[in-house]
Design a protein that fits this description.
homotrimer, UDP-N-acetylmuramoyl-L-alanine:D-glutamate ligase
Chain lengths: ~300, ~300, ~300
């Protein structure tokens, strides 16, 4: 935590690095097994989440009832939870679902959309501290805000940040990815220490994505800026992270999903004439990008 | 019911068969009258359901409140009900809606998504036995599960199937269409005997669709496998079945909708570069396929 | 109010008319500032609303909880409320939200989808009379119905219309835009008299859109009929009107959004092969149409 983002240097991961091999295997497994990852997600982008999961090779099921989630979790490889558009009953349903997933040691991904906004959302996110996810994926402001809501930033950062600066601009990040590195490391260590497998990861999405397991920090450049001009880029990445988590451990899943998205968005941007055709081309590219290309995508190791 | 699926033979329906004439007329009427079919459907694919209804020539209205559905049913030709993403209040709203639709003899289509999963869904589906729909459309596992939930399979199949084999893999079918033929026939006979018009149909979606009115069995090949790579292929087919039900009787509506989808998905697959452009091309093809082409689509009569 | 629609004449707005300058400035500001307009909108078209807001240059946030809306309203330039697919709790949430928005003088757009259908919707719409929006955007039947629900048509029209003729055909208009001119003028004057800034507008969507501030009436021709073959054309226009309202006053926002849509839909129709590719091309065209082209779009002043 003593390192600041500005002092980090990043070097490309070697072509034969074990992480790349793990990513390639994960991408192959998703396409061989069409794993089911279920989602409890917002109403805005629920369709894109499902279509992205199908486009990478998985299958999708979406539910809002604890008894549905419990039944499907018996056959699903992972669960994705996104707190974007809350309904009143989510305040009791979501804590119950997190408790049941963790009681049965089921891996799950949390997308803390708009963390810091709305007391219902804050209460739900607070409850997850007792039953934390395997992976948290969000933008920089959301990662910082969740770390703050869980009081994990008290020791190192309480004098640096006030509540105001950790509140996102709606669903947009007001912070840069690098500013969230300390929070991401702290959060990943907390998740790892509570994980039934001992492994966990945090993914911070931005111009250059950042993924960490609490030990190493990976930076993933190369995605298209057009991803910020369609709704659901982050949510669908969260859902696809769930798909990868159904066939691999947390760090591999988080990196594989982000790299797959970066490759596909880069490819889609080359042919798209605007955000409408970009979305179609992006789903096509998720489908068409090979496991080898994903594994050889841009990955930097920071230190 | 004594025939098993493996012993069936299927022959192409003649070009001037009355069913083909009924399909052509239905397709023409949809485009002339732009009939309204309202939907109570899941949040994942609600947009595609509406867009598919518009693309075949109908109009759409979506609601979740019994008083909305009742008001719109006065002006709608049919209603489509899909139990995909349940909210708690659906447990009372849906049985009430089914009761009101049947009390006023309004035709409706049931899509028993994920039948067999979740006690709330099971309770809702059980309640529909008292107020059954005009058409049930689902995948093989869902049709088998609904027949089981309604105890219609007791006499013939209770010794063959346990609860476990009738539970779908989330929203995916674990059974093949042929395995659901007996259940579809049983279900269609039950629906017919409770229909205010005496007619009803069951449609089983899969690689080759199966439609039956309880007497004859029709098989509809030719759809594209890419339909399994976009979310909502089944739901939008259910919604369009509602659109066709607004202008024709049950058997014609179920076959016409499936054949229209098969023609369009086949056409779309020829130009699509992946699931993203496939969805756009599929909606275009629904719009562009002529009534004559639909009526002359692949239809096999089984016996 | 004594003029009837049939006697109006319309003349093109001059190229250097102040309204055109205001539209051009608004379109530039949206792209410079990427303003946030939040939405409480229906589940059918929520994705298109967000994507359209992004495609014109703004940002989006969608919520259903009063505490979310209140938190986001502090950072959002405007709020868009659409009563399409109601859930039971909306009956209390929406009146509370309207009250809070008006108490803090926050501008908002109301889309009275299916006004006249369903007692829950009618009760919600009635409640808004006490806390009226800055802009109302709807089809002709919805504008007439809302004016009727608020008893604003008593003096002039009570003998002309019965409840029956003001009920829309589901979400489709049974009335022509011109038939709603009197209602739109009446409604706009009511909104202006209750607006914290003294300005307000009503937009009636149709083959030729009509926008009025209660004094002047503008007609906006040139949109593509394909807009009636995708779901959410009206809703996304409402959302984009919110985006423009975040950077300009009511009349400019309503006209700018409609003209931007008409330009883009005209452009999209030139290349689309059907409703699927039309939707993608439309979002592309929203993104690609310049502020100058929007400002020089077809606008007629009626008198």
């Amino acid at each position: 935590m003593s390192d600041t983002a500005s002092s980090t240097t990043s070097t490309p991961l070697e072509a034969d690095h074990p992480i790349r091999k793990a990513i390639e295997q994960a991408a192959r497994l998703v396409r061989q097994r069409t794993p089911l990852a279920q989602s409890f997600t917002n109403f805005v982008t629920i369709n894109l989440v499902a279509n992205a999961q199908l486009a990478v090779g998985g299958t999708a099921a979406m539910s809002y009832l604890p008894n549905d989630i419990a039944d499907v979790s018996a056959i699903a490889g992972a669960t994705y939870i996104n707190v974007g558009t809350l309904l009143p009953f989510f305040a009791t349903a979501l804590p119950q679902i997190a408790k049941e997933l963790n009681a049965s040691a089921k891996p799950w991904v949390l997308d803390p959309v708009a963390a810091g906004l709305g007391k219902t959302r804050t209460a739900i996110l607070q409850s997850f501290k007792e039953n934390p996810p395997t992976i948290v994926r969000g933008n920089a402001s959301e990662i910082i805000a969740l770390t703050h809501i869980w009081n994990l930033d008290v020791a190192s950062e309480s004098t640096l940040r006030s509540d105001e600066t950790t509140r996102p601009a709606g669903v947009e990040s007001v912070d840069e990815v690098d500013q969230a590195q300390d929070a991401a490391l702290t959060l990943a260590r907390f998740l790892s220490s509570h994980s039934s497998t001992g492994t966990a990861a945090v993914a911070v999405s931005g111009a250059v994505d950042l993924v960490t397991d609490g030990a190493d920090v990976y930076r993933l450049p190369g995605g298209s800026e057009m991803m910020t001009k369609i709704t659901g880029a982050g949510c669908s990445l969260g859902g696809v992270t769930g798909t990868y988590l159904a066939v691999s451990e947390a760090l591999t899943a988080a990196i594989a999903a982000s790299v797959h998205f970066n490759c596909a968005s880069h490819l889609a941007a080359e042919t798209a004439a605007g955000p409408g055709t970009f979305q179609s081309a992006f789903l096509d590219a998720l489908w068409n990008t090979s496991a080898t290309d994903i594994a050889q995508g841009a990955i930097l190791l920071s230190n």
